[in-house]
Design brief:
The complex is a heterotetramer, with 2 copies of chain A (387 residues) and 2 copies of chain B (287 residues). Chain A is 37% helix and 25% strand. With 387 residues, chain A is α+β, with helices and mostly antiparallel strands. In chain B, strand 10, helix 5 and strand 11 form a beta-alpha-beta unit. The chains are: A alpha+beta (387), B alpha/beta (287).
Chain lengths: 387, 287, 387, 287
């Protein structure tokens, strides 16, 4: 789960990392009140869960009250990569002497968290990695011992930080790591961490990604989920215990298992890509395939108005495919979809399952023997070319 | 021969009295596995599918002589169950549990890296492993497999069943099928399983099923290039997945431009692996 | 540093371990008020930093108001092993169904904390170790991973605890370990941990020893030090940065270094023991030996009215013994002690140092060449037999 | 030969710019030690006694080629300094700092027990070590020693100086004198040092100086009985100390009836060790 900048900075602040004293506004008037509290100039920053908001005009420095009014008005309601901006963060504008990058991330291969820092702050770290890889310093952390003081000094030394700032840098790095551990984060990032002209270190921007697998033990963070920033269907799917990610294609996919779900999506693209056809979603219905869960999944898929056909791909393993087929038909009759549906059943009793589907003689419901055939039929159907 | 487990493996089921534990215990027994007992704290003395239930792994090992376990306990208790199994000195632990918090898994992972540990951990969030005709530790449907000489290693569940089923249908039996799981930090990685297949006399060819996210397939490609003599075919899922979005598995996410299917397929091809665009091509690529 | 029972139980309670709801009284009236609050019967327990208070009559169950008055009156002011009882804990009397022993201690050889438990609670664990060693269960804890849930179950199983209590036992064990770690304890002990007739688990008695080396980071615990329970001279020594432990002999010792200080004590006993003569104290004056510190140490030693002679044993290493001798004479002239003092200087420039002492011609100030000679002279002096 | 350190040992001083660090750096240099530099975070670029000061151990090692360090930083920073030295790959670390919280030391101790670590840690709360005529790492007064063939290992500080001084005065020079410190969990224990002396060709006889508390001397006795061929003399301090009271050193406390001088002396005598009642007897016992 990704946190908004203001949420991440809220957690930073709670753990002792200095952040600007700004607040969040949902209207222009609120933005003006906050700006009056903290004084001009201010930075008005769109709170959206995507990168590139700066380039999209979602971050502006306002030096007058008119500018606060103008920029807040422009940014609130703006679209950035399909997401509407509902909130802005109004922060005091800092006098920046130096910008640093500082993050704690997970190194999968090492199975360890790693402190990453760079003197090249303020730009995307992938850009630095590409242009100037030697400017990125990595210090691995023993998860059982935590970040040693000496490690923060090694990093401070390696990024050529003036020694006057070592202690503040060490405190911030240790707190950032604590923030990472205590909140079950998989990423905590400060970019930029700035040294102001007054010699203070401040986390000007913040990013946090929380381990979804651990959200159950962080009710406070789980409650921060911004439902307005998420597709409504995704919210409903999560509530139904279904893994669903909305995409931009035309073929709705319903699959049991994440790997097979990705593969099914890939097949629609493989056979439809040349015609601009691809998956409308990722959907993993999980184990078994009871009629009510299938029905819920169907409704979620069909709530996407781009969907032109649906591909259901179920591998019957311990659950037998004939049972799955019966559940499918029941769900179909409940939801009564108005687009063609291709069902491919594989595994145990797949032949019997296919027969049940065919025998049901439902218009718009087609069987397929292989994934290849199913994907091809779904592409045809999406193009309106399947009878 | 097979790898990891065979008909001599004595298996405990941790969380045997739960719904999943009960169901899959029955399935495992039906598919030839030597299940010797189970563990559920507080339920010692009960019986499940004719097997004794113990309160602790320690007791269960002392009494049954088990040398492996399959963990079905829910995610929040999974790390404790893994530590219990490791500290009881089991050779093989297969953790089906999902979701396991990454931080919990990190502790287990780093504990295993210490020299004194001799336990091999598969998972978590994995379907387990199947040595057709000999043993099944986990939830891979036994019917999909068939004894033979193809080694299968995969991050996925049902996608693996598909591929194994297709192999069996094409007459290509398997030595062992290993689902390492789709989490970012698995107990056992591709390279470790590939090494076992390379060393296993029964295994003649290998299938690797990967997905987007992380660098595990790249490391596998480097290993194959340097160390493998047996032919390998592969499929990588997630070609159509957009960056920055988690595709079901905690590990299946393209971050910072890393972990795309393209990169992985390219590295594997360069290592001499036949890479399928469509998993149904795999039996053909092994001919 | 040892904590009182009520202090240990206060820390237990804070961390979530169930303890009785009693409070501490310093007068009989206070004890009555507390007993009225919690209801009869109550247990009145002397709060002294020593074992064996039960045998000494320091723990009594009061079933009537008269008994509360009587027992509180008797126990307050009682002497237990040289210590005056200033406080009593008034706890509700529990209906005990079972008594368990539970502790976290340090295993020096393993370098690990160890959870120790026994079904034989309520008696001293050394007694159990002696009579029934197989009843003591030890579970080692990885200090980097903490106490696993499964370990508490292994222990519960090994002490044959009824399964209904496993969860409560596990919670208490984990909290006891947390209490150990978070407070830098070297021992946290619950003895007995009882199961009441009502099926509740309660820590009826508690003991904690805190690592003195870590007290600097636990100001709250350092402030719990009971100065009334400690020799006044020990308090003054601690404030002067001197390690001092009052003992019962007649020869005051002043030494630089803990090992040499113990050895010096041992020598007085070796040569005086047959005549009932021995060390009056342990005193390590630390590095160097400036005149003011020597003077402070001398005053502390002489505040003990049992002292009949003083043995000063200083090994001049990097500090030269002649310098030490000059400091000694200055301190001597400041304090003007009225008992014989034997000074033994060794190491660098020891001969010059001895000459300085001898040349000073101070009555009651004697030099010695070896530790053996010094100890023998100190014993003679304590017997009044040194001219 | 000597053990642990000799004239080829290149020594860093951690905390070199502090009062103690500065003073003992001078002392160490005077007694032949090859001090190559020091470390104090934030003071890199300064010079102490003609030796360069660095901000981090890593830099210091890269530039000076140091393979050992002596730590003089105050107790609260001691664990971090030890980890820094260990992670920089030094062969030998001598930690003088006192007081070091036991919990901090436990972390260091268990970290060292992992297989990958090759560092030998002496201390904390110890006087360090002295190889007369070759190297001194710590605060043992160099003048007390004299090159020779007696190995000395001790929990104590000044008591050790006494004994070493007495040995030298009696014409018995030392191979190496090692103060392991009086804390409950030292980085290196008696047995490890005894093993080194047993293996060292220069060492012919050994002196062990122990004290009350713990079981270290009992373990030493067991080791001597089983594995030592060289004669050992010993003194144990604290015969007059009452139970339950800490005698200066954090480790010097008789708890639960364990760790008395009697028990220890008895075990040592049983192992063939000559045990002195009075430390001034030791040179005589070695004849």
């Amino acid at each position: 789960m990704n946190l908004h900048e203001h949420q991440a900075k809220g957690l930073f602040s709670k753990i002792g990392i200095p952040v600007p004293i700004g607040r969040v506004a949902t209207t222009v008037d609120e933005a003006l009140v906050i700006a009056q509290d903290i004084g001009l100039p201010v930075v008005i920053k769109a709170q959206v869960l995507t990168g590139g908001r700066g380039k999209a005009g979602g971050v502006k420095v306002a030096r007058t009250w008119d500018e606060v009014r103008e920029y807040a008005g422009k940014i609130l309601g703006m679209m950035i990569k399909d997401l509407i901006v509902h909130k802005v963060l109004v922060d005091p504008a800092a006098n920046i002497a130096q910008e640093i990058y500082l993050a704690v991330a997970m190194d999968r291969q090492a199975g360890r968290p790693v402190l990453i820092s760079s003197s090249e702050g303020g730009v995307e770290i992938e850009q630095v990695a590409h242009d100037k890889p030697e400017a990125i310093i990595r210090e691995y952390i023993d998860p059982q011992l935590g970040l040693h003081d000496y490690q923060t000094r090694n990093v401070a030394s390696a990024i050529n930080l003036p020694r006057a700032h070592w202690r503040a840098f060490g405190d911030i790095a240790r707190n950032l790591y604590r923030c990472y551990v205590e909140n079950d984060a998989t990423l905590t990032e400060i970019n930029p961490l700035v040294i102001t002209n007054e010699g203070q270190m401040v986390a000007l921007d913040g990013k946090m990604v929380i381990d979804d697998n651990a959200l159950y033990r962080h009710k406070d963070i789980a409650a921060m989920r911004d439902l307005t920033a998420e597709d409504e269907a995704e919210t409903r799917a999560r509530e139904a215990g279904i893994a669903y990610v909305k995409l931009n294609g035309q073929i709705g996919c319903m699959v049991n298992g994440a790997g097979l779900a990705m593969t099914t999506m890939d097949m629609t693209k493989l056979y439809g890509g040349a015609d601009g056809i691809g998956p409308a979603n990722f959907l993993d219905i999980g184990g078994g395939a009871q009629a009510d869960k299938v029905a819920a999944a169907l409704r979620i898929i069909l709530s996407d108005s781009n969907v032109r056909s649906v591909l259901i791909n179920i591998f019957g393993g311990i659950t037998r495919a004939d049972e799955v087929a019966r559940g499918m038909i029941q769900a179909y009759n409940e939801v009564k979809p108005d687009v063609p549906i291709i069902i491919r059943l594989a595994g145990t009793n797949a032949d019997e399952g296919r027969e049940i589907i065919n025998d049901a003689q439902i218009p718009y419901l087609f069987g397929a023997a292989t994934l290849t055939e199913a994907a091809q039929k779904a592409v045809q159907a999406a193009k309106g070319a399947l009878a | 021969m097979a790898i990891l487990a065979d008909k001599n493996t004595k298996v405990l089921v941790q969380g045997i009295t739960g719904r999943e534990g009960r169901f899959h215990t029955k399935q495992m027994i039906e598919f030839d596995t030597d299940v010797v007992g189970g563990v559920t704290p507080g339920k010692g003395g009960e019986w499940v599918e004719g097997k004794p239930v113990f309160d602790t792994v320690k007791q269960a090992v002392e009494i049954t002589g088990a040398n492996a376990s399959v963990i079905f306990v829910p995610g929040p208790g999974a790390a404790d169950a893994m530590f219990e199994a490791i500290d009881a000195g089991l050779d093989l632990v297969v953790c089906i549990s999902d979701p396991v918090p990454l931080w919990d898994m990190l502790k287990v992972f780093n504990y295993l890296k210490r020299a004194e540990s001799k336990t091999r951990l598969i998972g978590p969030n994995c379907p387990g492993l199947l040595t057709p005709g000999q043993a099944k530790l986990g939830i891979i449907p036994g019917v999909v497999g068939k004894p033979g000489s193809v080694g299968v290693v995969s991050k996925s569940g049902t996608l693996t069943y598909e591929v194994v089923y297709a192999l069996s249908a094409a007459g290509l039996g398997q030595s062992t099928c290993v689902g390492i799981g789709g989490d970012p930090v698995p107990g056992t990685n591709f390279v470790e399983v590939l090494q076992m297949f390379e060393d296993d006399p029964q295994t003649e060819k290998v299938v690797l099923i990967g997905e987007i996210g992380g660098r595990a397939e790249i490391e596998a490609a480097e290993f194959i290039k340097k160390h493998m003599t047996k032919p390998v075919a592969a499929f990588i899922a997630g070609a159509s997945a957009p960056p920055g979005t988690r595709m079901g598995h905690a590990g299946a996410i393209i971050e910072g431009g890393e972990g795309t299917v393209e990169q992985k397929a390219e590295a594997l091809r360069e290592a001499g692996v036949r890479v399928a665009e469509n998993p149904e091509q795999i039996p053909g690529l092994l001919r």
